[in-house]
Amino acid sequence: MINRGNNLFSYINSFYLRNVSFSAKIFQQFFLFVISPFIAAASVADDGKRMKQFQEMYASKSFAILGLVVGVQLYSVFIGRAMNW
Question: Which residue windows are transmembrane per the record (predicted)?
Fold first, then answer.
């Protein structure tokens, strides 16, 4: 019985940490969206170097969020099929 309790605790802890990570990535992407006009204005002065760096950061955050969403969807499909098996 203790083993089940530890597994449940680790599952809840993992779920909590995944949600915190997901929320942090969304907040980071929102922050990048808010500062984008300032980056675009500053890119005129430095020949677009900051804009290129900004685009890479924004794309990497977008793909990370997309990866997390797809991972959760696949996990839920797997759990659903495992429960019906």
Answer: 26-45, 57-79
